[in-house]
Amino acid sequence: MSNAPKRPGNPALFWVSMLLTLAVLLPLLGSFVLYSGWREENRVLAAEKKQSGVPIDRPGPETDLTMLVTVARERPGFLLLRLGAPEAVLQICALPGESVMRSPSGPVELQESYRSAGPGRAAELVSETLDVAIDRYLAITPESLQRVWGQLEPPRVNLSSILSSQELGSLGIKDDPVISLRPQDAGELLERLDPGPARRARLEGAVWEAALRQQLDKLSETLPAGLRAESGSLLGNVTAADMFTLEKSLEWLAKQETRVEAEPVPGHYDRRTGRYEFEPESLAFIRERFAKPLERSRPQPPQSTTPDEE
């Protein structure tokens, strides 16, 4: 058996092999790192792009509410109000108390139905007569309304398009028809003038339009809190959950280009009977402004025909 010493390996060959190995591995490793970074960047960009098209906290259909608000004074005022947060609209229609409602017992004035059976019955008859879905109803006294309105500035209302120059002169505001008038004070002005049912409704609607339009950015903080504080004096079916929905809806509307519109329902006043009668176009008027988006897309039921028409 030979005991001759082993010959040492060649160092140059070892380093050449290592360099060749690194020359192969380093580009592969670098490519892997770059590919991983590219994928992560694309994933983040895709996620951001996807999220950018998703509205955050957008109101749902539950915030599209139609209410009948009654100001419970000696001559009650009636306000049909649509709080349409999804479409960014506040629609206001003041209804004359002399409006004729359909009922099983025959025609009845809106104010008489309210006095005899309360705001729930009044809302039911308005719903049936004008074919509008009323989600909530509420009756509030002028005193409670004043406390609900709180420290908000009285809205500025232009009366020139509603009252005659003679009527403006009787109020001492002929030279400047723009006055500060809070919703709870509208009744006093109306009693002084007694302009008739149609113009009374126009004037009351104009006051509410100015109040909601000019104070929209503050209403989410004031209105729900005021209604909660006055809950013991209110009559209606508005719940605690509705107050939360109202608050969130008003917050949303304050951030949008919200349309605030006030128009009277077409009709005519019969001086002989002292009643305000709706006209054929009244139903189309209400449907255009108060129907929810899904309701507008539904086909209208065919009109009933008499035997002679068949």
Strand tally: 12
Compute the CA-based radius of gyration: 34 Å
Low-confidence stretches: 44-56, 301-310
Strand order of the largest sheet: 9-6-1-2-3-10
Q: Strand-residue fraction? A: 15-25%
List the keywords.
two-stranded antiparallel ribbon; 310 residues; alpha+beta; 48% helix; 17% strand; disordered C terminus
List the helices and strands and how they pair.
Elements: H1 11-52, E1 64-71, E2 77-84, E3 89-95, E4 100-101, E5 108-109, H2 110-130, E6 136-140, H3 142-149, E7 156-158, H4 165-170, E8 178-180, H5 186-193, H6 197-214, H7 216-229, E9 235-236, H8 240-255, E10 259-262, E11 267-270, E12 275-278, H9 281-290, H10 293-297
Parallel strand pairs: 1-6, 3-10
Antiparallel strand pairs: 1-2, 2-3, 4-5, 6-9, 7-8, 11-12
Helix pairs in contact: 7-8
Question: How would you describe the overall organization of this protein?
Answer:
- With 310 residues, the chain is an alpha+beta fold.
- 48% of the residues lie in helices and 17% in strands.
- It contains ten helices and twelve strands.
- Strand 4 (100-101) and strand 5 (108-109) form a beta hairpin.
- Helix 7 (216-229) packs antiparallel against helix 8.
- It is globular and about 125 Å long.
